[in-house]
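Researcher: I'd like a structural prediction for the single chain below. Treat it as a standalone chain; there are no partners to consider.
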Amino acid sequence: MEDLIQADIFFFITSAAVIILSIGLLAIFIYVLLILKDAKKVSKKVKNETELVVDDLDEMRREMKKEGRKIKPIWNFFSKIFKKTGRKK
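Model: Treating it as a single chain, here is the predicted structure.
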C-alpha cells in the first residue's frame, strides 16, 4: 500500500514538472516567433532601402556618364596644359 502511495506522489510530481516545462517551452517558443516576426519586418525594410539606394546609384551613374561627356573636352584641355607645364620644368 505504501508503494502505491509513493508511486502516486512520483507521478504527481512528474506530471507537474512536465506541465511546468511545457508552459516554459511554450513561452520561449512564443518569444522566438515574435523575434522572428520583427526580424522579418526589419529585413523587408532593409531590402526596400537597399533597392532605393541601388536605384539612386544607377541614376547617379547615368547622370555622371551624361555630364561626363560635357566635361571631357574641358578636362582634356586642362590636362594638356598641365602636361605641357610639367615638361618645361
